[in-house]
Amino acid sequence: MLLRLETVFDRFSDVMGWIAGVLNLAMLFNVFYDAITRYFFNTGSIAMQEMEWHLFAMVFLFGIAYALKEDGHVRVDVLYDRFSPRWKAIVNIGGTVLFLLPLSVLIVEGSVWYVTEAYTSGEVSGDPGGLPYRWLIKLVIPASFVFLIVSATGFVIHNINILRGFAEPPDRDLRHTGTPL
């Protein structure tokens, strides 16, 4: 049962990674278009410049869920590298339950008013010619942390499956696989 549940959560995280990848591609085209119009045609758009950082924020915030699933997040590996797979799973579960999930819930709860305030006040860009509907980009903050909560749930289930012996721990050490760095 837990293996099937883990698969569902993994697929969700994979979709978030795919979305982040598509947004990264959109950001690439946006920056390319903005640079070409600015330097070759001596024109530009404040809205396109703002869209660059909006897309960057979305790539980063939506990519967090995928990075957690792929175990690509930053961690201090001074002791963790020396742990057995069982202890690594225990540390992952403890860190997720004690730190990641409460912090994510706190950010979701604290940022909803931020979105609501921007929506009710009709907040727009402070720059002339900037993007309207500032609440849309602010909505990405609580949404991304809801997505992170979903991914973290799958991460915990995966580590429970490792503890139960139903899943293999990820092999992230390229030095021991023979793969050239």
Distance between the termini: 38 Å
What portion of residues is helical?
over 70%
Low-confidence stretches: 174-181
Structural class: mainly alpha
Instruction: Give the ordered list of helices and strands.
Output: HHHHH
Largest sheet: none
Structural shape: elongated
Mean pLDDT, as a whole number? 86
Number of strands: 0
Radius of gyration: 20 Å
Counting DSSP H or I runs of 4 or more residues, the number of helices is 5
Mind sketching the topology for me?
Elements: H1 2-40, H2 46-69, H3 77-80, H4 85-121, H5 134-164
Write up what this structure looks like.
- This protein has 181 residues and is mainly alpha-helical.
- Helix content is 75%, strand content 0%.
- The longest helix is centred in the first third of the chain and has 39 residues, at 2-40.
